[in-house]
Amino acid sequence: MSADVAARRGIPDASVARLPGYLQALTSLAERGISSVSSEELAAAAGVSSAKLRKDLSHLGSYGVRGVGYEVDRLAYEISTALGLTQDWPVAIVGMGNLGRALAAYSGFATRGFNVIALLDRDDSLVGTPVGDLAVRRMGDLDALVRDDRLAIGVIATPADSAQDVADRLVGAGVRSILNFAPCVLDVPSDVMVRKVDMSTELQILAFHEQRRTGELDLTAQSGVEGVVAL
Amino acid sequence: MSADVAARRGIPDASVARLPGYLQALTSLAERGISSVSSEELAAAAGVSSAKLRKDLSHLGSYGVRGVGYEVDRLAYEISTALGLTQDWPVAIVGMGNLGRALAAYSGFATRGFNVIALLDRDDSLVGTPVGDLAVRRMGDLDALVRDDRLAIGVIATPADSAQDVADRLVGAGVRSILNFAPCVLDVPSDVMVRKVDMSTELQILAFHEQRRTGELDLTAQSGVEGVVAL
């Protein structure tokens, strides 16, 4: 079974979500000239347990060799293939405010497998403005982008109150994969996949842990004894 | 048991990660003047199953009333308290490139519970440059920010190759919660929590689904018959 075939079978979503992390760790190892890695080392570099790593990779049909581990280049290629990164996916970013401009300039988008082909904005007064190597285009160009340039992924970088409208335009033009940066839940047909990048969500999760940590410190301070013993 | 006490007990990480989504959905309902919501409606708005929603909320000691559901304001308050959002967490953003500037301007950071108190950069030539309402400060100010302004959360918006150094500076100054936008894994002490926002990871997950979808379309096209029947 090739990795490509495996990709179309039922790899659990949670495993798919961890593959990019493994790929990133492998790329970093390759850059340092390391050609083989144990599951323990790779797991540590990706921030997961080695049992979870081995389980995830087994879905791709990739098993390490006892005492040797995984061949870095080969495993990177297998994961890239499984993720569909051996071809270029055309990406459009919608919304040319601060965030959209940052995303247009963000080197992470230049990762192998993605190609930002268009920047769009609903505001016609922005059309033609150069942002990096591209000029801002009008929303009406979406149909042509999907038809002629095989636009596959739309990135929504608008405020929350226009995100649903932009999503409707993308879906109407035939885009079926959306990366949403607007802090809202989008209503899309079931065959459309939306991934959300929500910075305030991540901040709130940090706040939870910060509170728990502070709470624990307070409790220690109140109990007193433990603090003294620890000294 | 108050929500605050619940927060310090063992709420599963996966449940904590979903609380911000519920809070966002509740905030949106409250803005529309809706005062009570069924678990099914709230679950749909947050994009999870109602069974999962009820399970998550039970960790807070919040149970809906049969036939009535949840009181919107009350539940929003309980979740805010559990997440630690009833106090303001001081945040500093490090790295004043495109991404850092976008984050400084991003309205999501102004969400209740967070307060961006400082923008920093390693490049001394940027120090003093105004970005929004703040002026860029030098990294050496971190100690004073933690000591005098109770800086709690550091946001890393630098390129990957300087992220670890910035993380070390933040940790050295006493920051224990880090939101990392750089596409790399950070090595930090075990009492430091790092959340990662990685746009290329999300894009890669979309690529996987786009490939699977395209693969399915190809298979349909090849089999031919199904296509005809569908017409």
Automatic annotation (TrEMBL), chains A, B:
Domain of life of the organism encoding this protein: Bacteria
One MF annotation (Gene Ontology) recorded for this entry: DNA binding
GO cellular component entries: cytoplasm
Pfam families xref list: CoA_binding, Put_DNA-bind_N
Span of the signal peptide: none
Domain named CoA-binding: residues: 84-185
Annotated compartments: Cytoplasm
UniProt entry keywords in alphabetical sequence: Cytoplasm, DNA-binding, NAD, Repressor, Transcription, Transcription regulation
Keyword Repeat on entry: no
Binding site for NAD(+): 95-100
GO BP term, example: negative regulation of DNA-templated transcription
NCBIfam families: PRK05472.2-1, PRK05472.2-2, PRK05472.2-3, PRK05472.2-4, PRK05472.2-5
Subunit structure: Homodimer.
Descriptive protein name: Redox-sensing transcriptional repressor Rex
